[in-house]
Specification:
- With 375 residues, the chain is an alpha/beta fold.
- It folds into two domains: 8-240, 3-Layer(aba) Sandwich (Aspartate Aminotransferase, domain 2), CATH 3.40.640; 247-374, Aspartate Aminotransferase, domain 1, CATH 3.90.1150.10.
- The chain has eleven helices and 14 strands.
- The longest helix is centred in the middle third of the chain and has 32 residues, at 233-264.
- The mean pLDDT is 97.
- The structure holds pyridoxal-5'-phosphate.
- Residues 59-61, 85-86, 88-89, 131, 157, 159-160, 181, 183, 193, 195 line the site of pyridoxal-5'-phosphate (PLP).
């Protein structure tokens, strides 16, 4: 059986008539950049996140960059970023002109270890990037408490967590601002690039909107030097259609994760669930000894099962961050995890036959290794 890592075509076919009509409506109105489809999506997505403002931008990376710049963070400032994330969480800090300061992760949740956070704060620290990695909410209350005490901004990197909730509150409504990506493979994915900043801060939203649109006050009057980072109408129309289906899709992801965890119990380490944290399983991560991971990957590949590694090199260990001169022991948890984690196929349209096929293959591999070790 061939099991892809995700199946965007299967999702499209399930909503084809709605999507096709939405795309045609944008073309009929030539509402390609900005316009009514973008405005409609921004309103719907702000409501979904439980906030008052949503600013559509070109992608999730720009959402972070525009947010940092709108908060006036730049040269001489530091921003704390978890050592385990996609590079967009940290490269945007540098592009804003500030310095990246990495903090290690909790080995069970793979998110920021809040007990190691305060040691990273200096007089130059301006913000903490709380990444809700894999769709699991970060430990927001302690992060917000530390931030309040040190007068720091908290920016949620919610690129993998559309629809997750933390103690009953939607992800995206917890920090000073939250940044979303609508890259096609994300839980809420466009048919191209897209992103958004959501916030309750009207001034921040206004500034971000101006910055992302050439610093415009009106057509050819520019209050500041900005950039061109706008959500386009076609993407917004697709996103409006898909947003209506997102709660159901996220619930299916949670069901699939529960099923995987049930089937994999005793074979490999499966994701932890914590009361009050409602994840959306953008990714389903298992953990296995480092010397077995590559063999498992190949074994699954031979069975037709696609896997991923998110991420194979912890951010501080990337060549891109050689300039920070970190050693391999500076972020022990992120470094160890990067050698042991494996992402299994996860998408709402998966069926039980696929879930059991994947889990059985993993269990079979692990059992064969235990036998080898015992003999
Ligand atoms: C995808 C992603 C981003 C960047 O989003 P793009 O839309 O691809 O620019 C940022 N942070 C995290 C954690 C992501 O997974």
């Amino acid at each position: 059986m061939n099991i892809p890592f995700l199946d965007l075509n299967k999702q499209y076919l399930s909503i084809k008539s709605e999507i096709d009509a939405a795309i045609q409506a944008v073309i009929d109105k030539s509402a390609f950049v900005g316009g009514p489809f973008v405005e409609q999506f921004e309103r719907a997505f702000a409501a979904y996140c439980g906030v008052s403002h949503c600013v559509g931008v070109a992608n999730g990376t720009d959402a972070l960059l525009v947010t940092f710049k709108s908060l006036n963070i730049g040269a001489g400032d530091e921003i704390i970023v978890p050592a385990n994330s996609f590079i967009a969480s940290s490269e945007t800090v540098t592009h804003a002109g500030a310095r990246v300061v990495f903090a290690d992760i909790d080995p069970e949740t793979y998110n920021l270890d809040v007990t190691k956070l305060e040691a990273k704060i200096t007089s130059r620290t301006k913000a903490i990037v709380a990444v809700h990695l894999y769709g699991r909410p970060a430990d927001m209350d302690p992060i917000l408490e530390i931030a309040r005490r040190h007068r720091l901004y908290v920016i949620e990197d919610a690129a993998q967590a559309h629809g997750a909730t933390y103690k009953g509150r939607p992800i995206g409504s917890l920090g000073d601002a939250a940044c979303f990506s609508f890259y096609p493979g994300k839980n809420l994915g466009a048919y191209g690039d897209g992103g958004a900043i959501v916030t309750n801060d009207a001034k921040l939203a206004d500034h971000a909107r101006m910055l992302a649109n050439h610093g415009r006050i009106d057509k050819y009057n520019h209050g500041i030097e900005g950039l061109n980072s706008r959500l386009d109408g076609l993407q917004a129309a697709v996103l409006s259609v898909k947003l209506k289906h997102l709660p159901k899709w996220n619930e299916l992801r949670r069901q699939h994760a529960r099923r995987y965890s049930e089937l994999l119990r005793g074979s490999v380490t499966t994701p932890v669930e914590t009361p009050g944290y409602v994840p959306v399983y953008h990714l389903y991560i298992i953990r296995i000894e480092a010397d077995l991971r590559e063999d498992l990957r190949v074994f699954l590949q031979q069975r037709g099962i696609a896997t991923g590694i998110h991420y194979p090199i912890a951010l501080p260990n990337l060549s891109a961050y050689a300039y920070l001169k970190h050693g391999a022991t500076d972020f022990p948890e992120a470094t160890t995890a990067s050698g042991q984690i494996l992402s299994l196929p996860m998408f709402p349209e998966m069926v039980d036959e696929q879930l059991t096929y994947v889990a059985d293959a993993v269990a079979e591999f692990v059992a064969s290794k235990i036998k080898v070790k015992a003999s």
